[in-house]
Amino acid sequence: MTDPLVALEPGTDPVERVRILRRAHETFVSAGTVPRPVRKVVADSWRRSAQAGVGPDGTARVELADGDLGTYRAEHPLARVMPLVRELMGTFAADGEHLFAVCDAYGRLLWVEGHPATRRRADRMNFVPGARWAESAVGTNAPGTAVAVDRPVQVFAAEHFVRRVQPWTCAAAPVHDPHTGQVLGAVDITGGDGLAHPHSLGFVQAVARAAESHLALLAPPRPATGTLRLTALGRDEAHLVTGDRRIRLSRRHSEILVLLSRHPEGLTGDELLCALYEDESVTPVTLRAELARLRRVLGPGLLASRPYRLTVPVESDVAVVERRLETGAVTAAASAYAGPVLPASQAPAVVRLRRRLADGLRTALIARRDPDLLADWAHAPWGTDDLEVWRALAALRPTPPVRARLAALEAELAAPADWARPPAR
């Protein structure tokens, strides 16, 4: 191979290449070694797939469906370039009896479109919107591997790790946020052996570049005029975006903004005192001083008094999670949950909000009985000691590490507290 990105160079016999790859795949599955003819990008992906616990007879799982999928797609940045992607890829896919797909940065397929008969065939392996095609879920495949390694990838036939995907060939390229460079997802073309050609790889790269250019030309999505954006999940000091300014708030100002964002009608000084301070000796003068400092940070006209209130709407990440939970979009809520609300805050009202949001989400996850969602929560810093979630996960996915962690948590629960132990003699 002169180009390591190309799966099948012109002049190569595809039938012979498939035979070699199948033999190499079986060798890897049985012995864990990769024979030399396998491309490095594929060999590395096979190893990552095996390390992630992917089996060669696995299948993709649908993670987003119905309301979850619709909500998540509508809010995803790549939704804004889908008309362009359809224009560039639609005819190519239809004429060639291929599919084109767009996934997010986690390898979840958001859109799958193209030739109707090919779509019906792809449905049988769950290559459908909402299914998770991350490399860590279904092994080597173009969209999942492209976002895993952040580079264009072409995967031919038996280069796929999962056997049921080996009749297919695909090429994908990552799409980046033009302002931050962050991977947003990938564009993919999937079909038969005819796609194992340098042109298909160049095609998806060109579509990805066009999508990035289009995103750069579009005005960045802004909330309604005058709206503030508040980010308070998983951080002790909230971030506030107002106009073109991004402000990192102090801990106390973070607490005040979170509370005022939830009470557009305003809060009296006494209400704010009770919400912010456990110590009843704190005087209204202390609170007024904090509010005066906050007013200077925000700028003129944003913080009113009598009662204390914000004069413009606030869109917060806390409200996003709450709305999704209220509509039953549990997967979308979990994806938006970046951690507890202001985790270090001891303000009574913030503590209550933090507990209520976390309990509401974890209850919904346990009720959903999705092992991947439960695993994400259990392995997050806030879920490491969550006994109920580990029990729910162990019931659905009783792997040795899960059972071991559950046993450790239950042993801790059963052990007497230090104060209850009899004194040593």
From TrEMBL:
Q: Cite the OmpR/PhoB-type domain residue spans from the record.
A: 244-310
Any one of the GO BP annotations: regulation of DNA-templated transcription
SMART domains, alphabetized: Trans_reg_C
Q: Does the keyword Lipid biosynthesis apply?
A: no
Keyword tags: DNA-binding, Transcription, Transcription regulation
Which organism is this entry from? Streptomyces echinoruber
Cite the InterPro entries for this sequence.
GAF, GAF-like_dom_sf, OmpR/PhoB-type_DNA-bd, WH-like_DNA-bd_sf
Does the keyword field hold Transcription?
A: yes
The name this protein carries in UniProt is Transcriptional regulator
Q: Which Pfam families does the record match to this protein? A: GAF
Q: Which GO terms describe its molecular function?
A: DNA binding
